[in-house]
Amino acid sequence: MTDRLDAFLPDIEPFEGADEWVAAVAGRARCTPEQTRAELARQQIRPPAGWGPQRHLHLNALLFAGVKTPTNGPRTPYIFDVAFRDSITAFGTHNENDAGKSSVIKTLRWALRGRCQLQQDVRKWMRAVVLELRVEEEDLAVAFGVNSGEPFGAVMRLRQPIDFVKLRRCLSEPTDALRDPPGTQVDGQSNNVFAALNAYLRDSNAVTVAEFSCTEDFERVMDDVMLDRLGFPHVATWQSRPREQQAHQGDGTLGMLGWPTWSSALSITEPSVPVVLGEERHAVVRLLQMYLGSPWAVTVAAIAARKGQLSSRLGTLQRRHQDQQTAHRGDLTELRRRLNEIDAALAAAPAPDDLSDLDRRMRAAADAGHAAEAAESNFRNVSLRYGEISRLLDEAESDVAALKEAKLTRRFWHALKPSCCPRCDTSVGEKQWARERQGQCSLCASPLDISEPPPTTESGQETDASTLEAYLAGDEQADIDSLDDLTAATLQVRQLERHLAVVDAERDAARLRRDEAQQNWQAAHAHVAEDGGRLSWTQWQKLVTERAVTQARIEERENVRPTVHLEQQIEAIERQQKIVLAAEIEAKARLKSDQDELLRLVSQQVATLGRSLGVRNLEAVMLSGNGQMPVIKGGERTNFGDLEPGEKLRLKISLIVALMRVGEEAGVARHPGLIVIDSLGREELNPKDMIGMLAELVKLSHEVPYLQVVLTSAYGDRLVEGLGKERVILAEAGQPLW
C-alpha cells in the first residue's frame, strides 16, 4: 500500500514513540504500524508532545500619540498613556459614547496582536504607539510608528521599565509640532514622534527582538513572538469555502491557527456574538481544546485539517475523473456518429471507377427522349385534326349564313305588291289582285310563298330543337333527307362544333403530356451532364482513409481507460483517508477522555461564577467539547445563543475564569490570564446588576492572582462604585478620554 502512497506524498521521516496509539490506529486501519507511522508522518500528524508550563501575560503600560485632524476642527496633538493595574483597570466616561474608550482598547489590541480594528480616521491620527508588557519574566515593548495608518516598528526586550513621565517629555515637542499642517517641503512619511520614541528606547538599552515594516509583517512578528513566549503552537485548520463558492463538496483551504486566533479568547468586545469563547464560530472548538489543556487537542486539530484537505483533494480527483469519463464517452459517441456519416456518404456516392450509374442515367435520358418525341407527335396529329374540323366548321357556318341570306331575299321579293307591269306600264286590276291573294303573282301567275317566316341569326331556330337533338343523337327514326338545306346545314354546324370540342380537349391533354415529357427529357439530360453525386478520386480516397482512422480510434477508446492514472490517485487518497480517519477516532477518544472530567468541572465553575455575576435563576451549565454551552435556567433548558446579551457577557467572563481555575487545579492551565472587555454595561439596564458584577470581578481578581482585567464603560459612576476610584480612569464630564 505504501508503494502507491509514495507516488503522491513527500517522503518524511516517521516519528517515534506513541506505540499504543499507533498500534490502535494500525489495527483500525488494517495496516502495519510501520505503514501507519509513515503515512501519519507524511500527513504531518504527530502524537502530542505534551504541554509546557502555563505562562502569564501582563500588561504594564500603554502610550499612544498623534494629532487629531477632524474635518471641521483644528489640528489637536495628543499624548495618552496609562499604567495598568495588576488586577483591574477600567476606562470610563459620564454616560458618553464616542469619547475614546473603545479606541484605547483597539489600540491596545493592535499592539498586542498586530491586527488593527481602529476606525480609519483614528488610525490615521496615530503617529506612535508603545505597549509595555511582561510574558513571565521577560519585559517587552511593542513600539511602532504609524504613517498614513500603516504601522512600522519593532518588538524590543527591555532591560529596564519605561519611564513614561520621561517618555512623555521626549514626545511632547515633536507631538506638539504636529499642530502645524505639513508644508509642501515636509516629507509626508517622516515621523518625528516615533523617532523620539525609538531614540528613548535605544537610550534605555532596549534590544530589538523583531522588526516589521507593514501590517502583514506586524501580524506575523506578533504571531512568532507571542506563540514562542506563551508556548502556543501553530495548528493546521481546514476552512471550508462558502457553499456557493465550492467546486465540489468539502472544497476549502488549508490554513494555520496562530496568535490572532488564540488571542481572541483574551477579549470580549461583542458580547452579543453567540460563541462562548473568542469571536468566531469556526474557531471556538479549537479555542476550547487549547485552553482546556489537553495535549491531544493539537493532534486532533491537525487530523481534522488533513482530513479536510484529503477530502477536498479526493473531491477534486473524483470530479476530474467524472469529467474525463464524460469527455471519453462523448468523444466515443462523436467518433461513432462521424463513422456513420462517412458510411452514409460512401454508400450514396459510388466509387470513381464505377460507370454503371452513368450508363443507367444515359439509358434513362434516351427513354425520356423517346417519350418526349412520341408526345410531340401525338400533339401534332391532334392539332392537325383540330385544324381540319375548324376549317369544316367555318365552311358549314358560311353555308348556313348564305342559305339564310337567300331565304331573306326571296321573301323580300315575294312580299312586294306591283301596281303596274314594269315593262308596258299596264295597271294591275282587281282581277290580278284577286289572283295574287290566292297565292299567284298578279303579273305572271307564278305561285307566291309570302307566308314563309324570316330566317333568324340563331342556327337551328328554323327547325324544331328536338328534331335537331334527335339528329345529333343519331336517332334512326329521324328523316335526314326530309330536311331543307338550311336545317341540314345547321345540323352539320352543330355536329362539327361538338366534334371540335372533343378534339380540343384531346389537344389540351396531348399538350400537357408533351410538356411533361419534354421536362422529363430535359431533367434526364441534365442528370447525365451532372456527376450524379460522384466523388472525385481524391475525395473518395480521403473518406476511405478517414473511415479507417475513425474506426481505429473507436477501437482504441473502447479498449483503453484514460482515467487509470486518476483512479490510482483516488485509490491512494482513499487509503490515506482510511488511516487518517482511524487516527482521528483514536485521538478523539483520548481527547474526550482528557476533557470529559474537565468539561464537567468547568461547567460547574461557570454555573457558580455566572450566578455570582448576576445570571438569575441559573441552575446548571453544560459545556460540551463542540463549543456548545446550553444552560438550565428557571427549570428550562436554553441554548447559549438564546440568552440575553448581558447574560452572555457574564457567562463568557465566567467561562474564561473557569478555564483558568480548573486548568490550574488540574495542572493543564493554558490561558495567559488577561481579559479585555469593551463597553461593559452596554447591555445592562439595571445599575445594581452591573455594580454587583464589577464587585464580583474584584473578588475574582483576588482569587486568581495572575488575572488581569482591562475594561471600558460609558457608566463611569458605576465603575467607580463597583471597582473603586483607584481602578478607574475617568474622563472629565463632556470631554473625551484622550
Short description:
The longest helix has 60 residues, at 356-415.
Structure description:
α2 (19-29) crosses α3, α2 (19-29) packs across α17 and α11 (296-348) runs antiparallel to α16 (537-559). This protein has helices at residues 2-6, 19-29, 33-42, 101-113, 120-125, 164-176, 192-203, 215-230, 259-262, 284-292, 296-348, 356-415, 430-437, 465-472, 485-529, 537-559, 564-612, 645-666, 687-703, 716-723; strands spanning 57-68, 76-83, 88-92, 126-135, 138-147, 150-157, 207-212, 235-240, 252-257, 267-268, 618-621, 631-633, 636-638, 674-677, 708-713, 728-730. β5 and β6 (150-157) form a beta hairpin. The strands form 4 sheets. The chain has a 6-stranded antiparallel beta sheet with strand order 2-1-4-5-6-7, sandwiched between helices. By secondary structure, it is an alpha/beta fold.
List the defining traits of the structure above.
738 residues; single chain; 53% helix; 20 helices; alpha/beta; 5-stranded parallel sheet
Topology:
Elements: H1 2-6, H2 19-29, H3 33-42, E1 57-68, E2 76-83, E3 88-92, H4 101-113, H5 120-125, E4 126-135, E5 138-147, E6 150-157, H6 164-176, H7 192-203, E7 207-212, H8 215-230, E8 235-240, E9 252-257, H9 259-262, E10 267-268, H10 284-292, H11 296-348, H12 356-415, H13 430-437, H14 465-472, H15 485-529, H16 537-559, H17 564-612, E11 618-621, E12 631-633, E13 636-638, H18 645-666, E14 674-677, H19 687-703, E15 708-713, H20 716-723, E16 728-730
